[in-house]
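Notes from the 1:1 (GR / supervisor)

We went over the backlog. Supervisor wanted to see one worked example end to end before approving the batch request, so GR pasted a single chain during the call. The sequence is below; no edits were made to it. Supervisor asked that the structure be written out right there so they could see what the output format looks like.
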Amino acid sequence: MKFLIFRFKRLILSLIITTCHITAFAQKVDVDLSGLVVDKTIKGYNRQVTIIPSGPKGSYIHLNENEGAGMAWLEGVQFSDGTIEFDVKGRNVLQQSFVGIAFHGSNDSTYDAVYLRPFNFKSQEEERRNHSVQYISLPKYDWPKLRSEFPNKYEQPISPAPEPEDWVHCRLVIKNDEIKIFINDNSTPSLTVKTLGNHKGTKIGFWVGNGSDGDFANLDIRKNV
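Structure output shown during the call:
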């Protein structure tokens, strides 16, 4: 009987330690996008940032179209490792819709990013479909260099392919030097890569590419600490 009591106490202690371990290593960050816009704690770079009060996803952030890449940095939010989830909507316009998220940022030109090319999702050309989701690490590793030197390693198709003008749910799992990108309800990542730039910055923000606008909603951040 004493042995059984001892085993039971050890089991309870193990459960308590496990629970504390999970709590300690997963910190949820509540991000109120509307509040950030109102409080002017979203910093736009090469883009105007506006809040759209209602839509299929509730209120959401809009970045306007402009030449060059642009960001909406979330001032006061820091991120290194963990999980980032958000909804994003682009357009089915060839070479004019690049939408995603930047992280590990130090400034407006030094960061990692993952983005979608919605106009490629359901293209009849296999090569274009293969360029649906992309990882970059600026300033050294932009997409032309990666595509030329590492074809089909840092960009992949998405299966099943979303509708190009639908809202798309993205989940990035970033741990140590590995990034996994899950699209919608897929249990298999659409892209898995190792980070390239060894960036130590902690800035995070919504990202759009050259000539692109974009809509963003429902940001959820869970940091590994």
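Supervisor's comment: Residues 1-24 have pLDDT under 50 and may be disordered.
Batch request approved.
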